[in-house]
Write a structure and sequence with these properties.
The complex is a heterodimer. By secondary structure, chain A is mainly β. Chain A contains no helices and 11 strands. Chains A and B meet through strand 5, strand 9 and strand 10 of A and strand 6, strand 7, strand 11 and strand 12 of B.
Chain lengths: ~120, ~110
């Protein structure tokens, strides 16, 4: 069974940093692209960052967030710096369907990031 | 970035009736080299993460009931639920990855009439 478990969320002041982690199990981690998607309270889904052969970022986080993966630990990370109030959201990690499909068939339950003074 | 626009923003349908949600992309998501539309549909029930329903515009994900179907090509796509069930109350999103930066539609909220 595929499992994705996010951690690392919490309350942080504007300008601060957080590192989110996503622990994966139940599949061959190296074979799949991974994504961080966020959802602000009461809002829709936003792709924050994708990592496959290379990394892609939303304009809203480029230069502040860094996506990375540790294949030896089956772990995905999101380093978030210079946090702003508008980064407040539930952050989900998800696994792609494989091949050239940038579609995501398994999702974690999410971790809440709150940026506030 | 490719902008995805869904219509309507919200929809109320009676149980057992058909629900139709549209998604339009600002540029084509059809990639000729693979002969595929890089378009997916997700359902997000209240308090839950999204679930993949349809990918490649019309391929149903394993385990998804056959009342869900996807159609369209290029820039215009449709998700159809042929007979609405109570568990289909959710927000539905389309998503493209024809470009490296994936984008979602704004979502369509589906309720029971």
């Amino acid at each position: 069974e595929v499992r994705l478990l996010e951690s690392g969320g919490g309350l942080v002041q504007p300008g601060g940093s957080l590192r989110l982690s996503c622990a994966a199990s139940g599949f061959t981690f190296t074979n799949y692209a991974l994504i961080w998607v966020r959802q602000a309270p009461g809002k829709g889904l936003e792709c924050v960052a994708v990592i496959d052969v290379k990394a892609y970022y939303a304009d809203s986080v480029k230069g502040r967030f860094t996506i990375s993966r540790d294949n030896s630990k089956s772990a995905l990370y999101l380093q978030m710096n210079s946090l702003r109030a508008e980064d407040t959201a539930v952050y989900y990690c998800a696994k792609s369907i494989g091949g050239s499909g940038g579609f995501y068939d398994s999702w974690g339950q999410g971790t809440l990031v709150t940026v506030s003074s | 970035d490719i902008v995805m626009t869904q219509s309507p923003d919200s929809l109320a349908v009676s149980l057992g009736e058909r629900a139709t949600i549209n998604c339009k992309s600002s540029q084509s998501v059809f990639i000729s080299s693979s002969n595929k539309n890089y378009l997916a549909w997700y359902r997000q029930r209240p308090g839950q993460p999204p679930e993949l329903l349809i990918y490649w515009a019309s391929t149903r994900e394993s385990g998804v009931p056959d009342r869900f179907s996807g159609s369209g090509s290029g820039t215009d796509f449709t998700l159809t639920i042929s007979s609405l069930q109570a568990e289909d109350v959710a927000v539905y999103y389309c998503q493209q990855h024809a470009s490296g930066r994936h984008t979602f539609g704004q979502g369509t909220k589906l309720e029971i009439k």
